[in-house]
């Protein structure tokens, strides 16, 4: 059942739906099968080019998209997830037969191809799935070819589960990371983990937890968290004792902020608004702007992203980010601070945005990030902090983020 669920999810991605858009699509399956279907679909997307290389060695004619997904799923199960060949091949043949007349005609071919693929020796040496050209070009230009390959390998490895603990909280069995996050390896049902109902922690990638730390919130400070949902950074700011206003354009996504705050026993003011139109009633001490972006730093956990995007939306995002930076700066007093962050691998959304903001705002400065557990080599020439999926390879990587702490001209600070 999980396999047919995975195929349904893959067909959805080919139709332009993200895996998270399809969260309700498998409701009829038991929860464990839904979870396994999601994991299988994600692994196929992470290794599609490698699976296609294996399949290509044994097919004489290009299979239909549906049959291609059955073949890819079986190859990934056998060669990557160490599934027992006989069970995987039988299941794939049955799934092919269930695809109607064309499937029945293809089932013999599927059986023959997969029996040969089961003995394929070259899987570990196959190159990782390449990033799409619109992403690979700028990443390789900024960081070099070796880094682009290392990032691709990190995308293939997927992501562990990171938690941000409330001050003083711990989670049994989780590895503490140098930056203060906790890391769990292997699949886990989040709501069944110790401390979930008590709200001792929330799910947040280790790199995603850095922008709020960079802002260095103090108890009692009034801080606006712009573009706040689902609220990982709002929770960090509130847990540090700040008076937080969380602004997001999406009321539905803000509801998730509310749920997370309630579970963790924290509070913040929630405002559903376009951040570009929002102004605070009372003076602010600081702003955190986690701007909407290409999300290309999160491909480890969202392997569907390269299949759904073609890069055409990026110029509009870059324009929006620049306008949000200018507006955020208008919200803080002279001498006030803001952190700009994006979960993007693209310099145009990170390093270049900050360089452009410095040029637009005379007197604006970037403060060198000093964050426990981060490496000085992550600091960029603009004075921001760049994280990449290939960092911490032995620990399981981290999301790609760019962040910078900006100090507005004037004031005493
Ligand atoms: C990268 S996510 C934010 C993640 C969040 N800061 C966290 O840590 O959980 C970007 C968010 O920006 C919101 N957004 C996009 N455009 C916006 C705008 N013009 N004003 C306010 N929020 C916006 C989206 O609804 C989305 O929730």
TrEMBL record:
Residues noted as binding S-adenosyl-L-methionine in the record, renumbered to the chain: 227-233, 248, 274, 290
InterPro entries: MeTrfase_RsmB-F_NOP2_cat, MeTrfase_RsmB-F_NOP2_dom, NusB-like_sf, NusB_RsmB_TIM44, RCMT, SAM-dependent_MTases_sf
Alphabetized SUPFAM superfamilies for the sequence: NusB-like, S-adenosyl-L-methionine-dependent methyltransferases
Segments forming domain SAM-dependent MTase RsmB/NOP-type: 123-409
Pfam families in the record: Methyltr_RsmB-F, NusB
GO BP term, example: RNA methylation
Gene Ontology molecular function: RNA binding; RNA methyltransferase activity
Active site: 343 (nucleophile)
Keywords from the named record: Methyltransferase, RNA-binding, S-adenosyl-L-methionine, Transferase
Protein family (similarity comment): Belongs to the class I-like SAM-binding methyltransferase superfamily. RsmB/NOP family.
Protein name per Swiss-Prot or TrEMBL: Methyltransferase domain-containing protein
Natural source organism: Paracoccus lichenicola
């Amino acid at each position: 059942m999980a396999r047919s669920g995975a195929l349904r999810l893959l067909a959805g991605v080919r139709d332009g739906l993200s895996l998270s858009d399809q969260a309700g699509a498998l409701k009829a399956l038991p929860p464990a099968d839904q979870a396994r279907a999601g994991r299988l679909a994600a692994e196929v997307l992470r290794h599609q080019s490698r699976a296609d290389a294996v399949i290509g060695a044994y097919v004489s004619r290009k299979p239909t998209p549906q049959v291609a997904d059955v073949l890819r799923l079986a190859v990934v199960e056998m060669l990557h997830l160490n599934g027992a060949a006989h069970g995987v091949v039988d299941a794939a043949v049955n799934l092919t037969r269930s695809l109607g007349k064309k499937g029945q005609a293809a089932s013999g071919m599927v059986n023959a191809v997969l029996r040969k693929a089961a003995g394929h020796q070259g899987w570990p040496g196959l190159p990782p799935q390449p990033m799409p050209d619109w992403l690979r070009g700028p990443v390789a230009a900024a960081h070099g070819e070796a880094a682009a390959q290392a990032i691709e390998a990190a995308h293939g490895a997927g992501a562990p589960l990171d938690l941000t603990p409330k001050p003083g909280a711990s989670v049994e069995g989780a590895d503490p990371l140098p930056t203060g996050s906790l890391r769990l390896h292997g699949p886990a049902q989040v709501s069944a983990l110790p401390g979930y109902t008590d709200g001792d922690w929330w799910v947040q990638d280790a790199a995603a937890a850095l922008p709020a730390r960079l802002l260095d919130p103090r108890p009692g400070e009034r801080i606006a968290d712009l573009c706040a949902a689902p609220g990982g950074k709002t929770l960090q700011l509130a847990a540090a004792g700040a008076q937080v206003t969380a602004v997001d354009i999406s009321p539905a996504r803000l509801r998730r902020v509310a749920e997370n705050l309630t579970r963790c026993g924290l509070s913040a003011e929630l405002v559903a608004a376009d951040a570009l139109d929002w102004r605070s009633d009372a003076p602010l001490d600081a702003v955190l702007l986690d701007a909407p972006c290409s999300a290309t730093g999160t491909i480890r956990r969202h392997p569907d992203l390269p299949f759904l995007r073609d890069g055409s939306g990026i110029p509009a995002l870059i324009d929006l980010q620049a306008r949000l930076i200018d507006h955020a700066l208008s919200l803080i007093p002279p001498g006030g601070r803001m952190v700009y962050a994006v979960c993007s691998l693209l310099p145009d959304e990170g390093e270049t945005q900050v360089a452009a903001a410095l040029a637009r705002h005379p007197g604006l400065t970037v403060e060198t990030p000093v964050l426990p557990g981060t490496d000085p080599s992550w600091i960029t020439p603009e004075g921001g902090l760049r994280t990449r999926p290939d960092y911490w390879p032995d620990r399981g990587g981290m999301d790609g983020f760019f962040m910078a702490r900006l100090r507005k001209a004037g004031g005493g600070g």
